[in-house]
Amino acid sequence: MLTSRRSFFAMCGAIILPGVSLGELIRTPWQGEGPFYPDRIPEDTDNDLVKNGHSTIEAGGKILNLMGSLVNRDSKPIKGMTAEIWQTDMNGVYLHTGSFGSKMRDDQFQGFGRSITDRNGHFFFRTIIPVEYPGRTPHIHLKLWNERENVLTTQLYIQGHSLNKEDFLFKRMTIAEQKINSMKLLPTQTNDSTEYVTSVRLVVFS
């Protein structure tokens, strides 16, 4: 089920992407795509990963509303870029035939989604807070591309998670890069449940 920008802003409330001056811009680090990019793209590839297809049943896990902003080296927004994310479900299983524990996969979790950056460079996803699995700290894979090239492939982490310091990919980044690739999760109340919101800024120099 597609999540609209209007409903997303209502969810985020007062969350605003921080302003960044030209001198403070740090290019978002590239990180490996990894072996679990979906080997079969699902029919449903919208930006709401919590509901799969036309199902009204939501996936297990804590819901995370992710807003991103894509800018260039001059801090100008980049529109019309395809943003993709993929991650494990609450059981640590990817949407991939080679994923560990595939028999435990939550079929209600879409596992992969796409969003197009708007004129302000913004993209939006409704997903779940990532979980750890053997050998990796919780993370979300993210790729940005257009019809000509792959502009960025990276991974997003949970700010302050105890497993970050043990993760081989997280440790490869500088402290500054670790900071910009980390998501600060803020709780927000929606009807009778608690969801989380976060925002990230991505900078590309291409």
Automatic annotation (TrEMBL):
<keyword id="KW-0223">Dioxygenase</keyword>
<dbReference type="InterPro" id="IPR050770">
    <property type="entry name" value="Intradiol_RC_Dioxygenase"/>
</dbReference>
<dbReference type="Pfam" id="PF00775">
    <property type="entry name" value="Dioxygenase_C"/>
</dbReference>
<protein>
    <submittedName>
        <fullName>Protocatechuate 3,4-dioxygenase</fullName>
    </submittedName>
</protein>
<feature type="domain" description="Intradiol ring-cleavage dioxygenases">
    <location>
        <begin position="33"/>
        <end position="180"/>
    </location>
</feature>
<dbReference type="InterPro" id="IPR000627">
    <property type="entry name" value="Intradiol_dOase_C"/>
</dbReference>
<dbReference type="GO" id="GO:0008199">
    <property type="term" value="F:ferric iron binding"/>
</dbReference>
<comment type="similarity">
    <text>Belongs to the intradiol ring-cleavage dioxygenase family.</text>
</comment>
<keyword id="KW-0560">Oxidoreductase</keyword>
<dbReference type="GO" id="GO:0016702">
    <property type="term" value="F:oxidoreductase activity, acting on single donors with incorporation of molecular oxygen, incorporation of two atoms of oxygen"/>
</dbReference>
<dbReference type="InterPro" id="IPR015889">
    <property type="entry name" value="Intradiol_dOase_core"/>
</dbReference>
